[in-house]
Specification:
- The protein has about 450 residues and is α/β, with parallel strands linked by helices.
- It has two domains: about 190 residues, MOFRL domain (glycerate kinase, domain 1, 3-Layer(aba) Sandwich); about 180 residues, Glycerate kinase, MOFRL-like N-terminal domain (Rossmann fold, 3-Layer(aba) Sandwich).
- Helices cover about 40% and strands about 15% of the residues.
- It has 17 helices and twelve strands.
- The strands form two sheets. A six-stranded parallel beta sheet has the order 3-2-1-4-5-6, with helices on both faces.
- The longest helix is centred in the last third of the chain and has 18 residues.
- It is globular, with a radius of gyration of 22 Å.
- The relative contact order is 0.14.
């Protein structure tokens, strides 16, 4: 491992540590009125640490929960015992499956036990949409999955994906709040969505849905999504438009009267963690003021170009410690997309595709690309349907891929970044981190 890669990984670790959902949940609940015996409903990639924090806060207040359910991405050995007396289970991600359906049923069973006036603590984090996914009445499982796949293949922006997904999910678009109507509901959210809008996170189970069926029909036309939407979903929207199917709860709905929602964690916290660690190490860290969005390939090239430009423009700091291999760290946060289209596709994820595109740009600029190392990774530790969080590349990565017998350009064009980066030893594997606050990209300049 090069010194630059080691530094990049250290800075990324700092990002993950800063986005600790346990600490954020515990701090938020400190001194907060939790009710005599609140119900706890937690779902998402950070569900386990958030639920543990809630239970610990209750223990300090000498209270016990009435019950509840924790729906996580995986259940490490002993996890169930850490959240007793809550029922812990794992759903499926990134595409929902039978475990997700069982989780949705369990959530419904818990919600039916809640009585008017009860206190409910809902803990949401990224990934919950899939982990507790089951179709709403009138939509088949096949149509729901077809919608998920179609939107991924179309490369739809995350806000567009969320608008359509919540429409077909049993607990999406405020429907969980409807099931809890009459209760006093506090919602704490660890955001994986740019802008931290509660209605867009985890498909907004306790938030008003601002999208009406007519809006979605128009959006599908604007985004040219018709070919990617199952006919059953289009028919469902038409039936909702005609009044045959009930709309999702809208702003001002009585079902939302008892709900108080608060975002307690997001991507900005992770970026602050990088900046603080860089300051501690003596690295000049510059955090981009706006999030990265759009296509991963385009953004990867743009980030590589920005790093090369920064090296030309930035003077060498006189105070740089001798043991730090890089003088400057450029940091971005956000979430890009990978439009798959109809052609052949391989294995990878948005963070890996961004990294591979950055490696191409560094390679093509020759000497200008040397001395720059770029890490691109998801804070949850899983990029797409792979075991990698992302990748770390530099000016030699593109050539190393070719020397290992892979065609890097073909891998980029066919969205097959994983095997190519793996062959070059560039993948970053962290394991599941227990948090999920979008992606972090770090460009180190020597």
């Amino acid at each position: 491992m090069t010194a630059a890669r080691h530094l990049a990984e250290s800075l990324f670790d700092a990002a993950v540590r800063a986005a600790d959902p346990y600490a954020a949940t515990r701090a938020t609940l400190e001194g907060r009125a939790l009710g005599a015996r609140p119900w706890i409903l937690a779902a998402g990639k950070a569900a386990l640490p958030m639920a543990r924090a809630a239970l610990d806060a209750l223990a300090v207040a000498r209270r016990i929960p009435a019950g509840g359910v924790v729906i996580a991405a995986d259940l490490p050995r002993g996890a169930e015992g850490e959240v007793t007396p809550l029922v812990a289970m794992a759903g499926d991600h990134p595409l929902p499956g039978e475990r997700s359906r069982a989780a949705a049923e369990a959530l419904g069973a818990a919600a039916r036990l809640v009585r008017p006036g009860d206190d409910v603590l809902v803990l949401l984090s990224g990934g919950a949409s899939s982990l507790m996914a089951a179709p709403v009445e009138g939509i088949s499982t096949e149509a729901m999955l077809g919608l998920f796949r179609g939107l991924h293949r179309a490369g739809a922006p995350i806000d567009v994906m969320n608008a359509f997904r919540k429409r077909v999910l049993r607990w999406g678009g405020g429907r969980l709040a409807s099931a809890l109507a009459g209760a006093k509901v506090q919602v704490l959210i660890a955001s994986d969505v740019i802008g931290d809008e509660p209605s867009a996170i985890a498909s907004g189970p306790c938030s008003a849905d601002r999208w009406r069926a007519a809006d979605l029909i128009e959006l599908a036309q604007q985004q040219r999504l018709g070919a990617y939407l199952p006919q059953e979903v289009q028919t469902f929207l038409d039936r909702t438009l005609s009044g045959e199917v009930e709309e999702t709860p809208k702003p001002g709905s009585p079902a939302l009267a008892g709900v108080e929602a608060r975002v307690i964690l997001g991507n900005r916290r992770a970026l602050e963690g990088v900046a603080q660690e860089g300051m501690r190490l003596g690295v000049d860290v510059r955090v981009a003021p706006t999030p990265i969005t759009g296509r991963a390939r385009s953004m990867g090239a743009a980030i590589a170009m920005a790093a090369m430009a920064a090296r030309s423009a930035a003077p060498m700091p006189s105070h740089r410690p001798l043991n730090i291999p890089c003088r400057l760290a450029l940091v971005w946060g956000g979430e890009t997309t990978v439009p798959l289209g109809e052609g052949p596709t391989g294995t990878g994820g948005r963070a890996q595709e961004l990294a591979l595109a950055a490696a191409q740009a560094l390679h093509e600029r020759g000497a200008e690309g040397r001395g720059i190392t770029i890490l691109s990774a998801g804070t949850d530790g899983r990029d797409g349907p792979t075991d990698a969080a992302g990748a770390v590349v530099d000016g030699t990565t593109w050539t190393r891929i070719a020397l290992a017998g892979h065609a890097p350009l073909r891998a980029l064009e066919q969205h097959d970044a994983y095997p190519a980066l793996d062959a070059a030893g560039a993948l970053l594997r962290t394991g599941m981190t227990g948090t999920n606050v979008n992606d972090v990209v770090i460009a180190l300049v020597e």
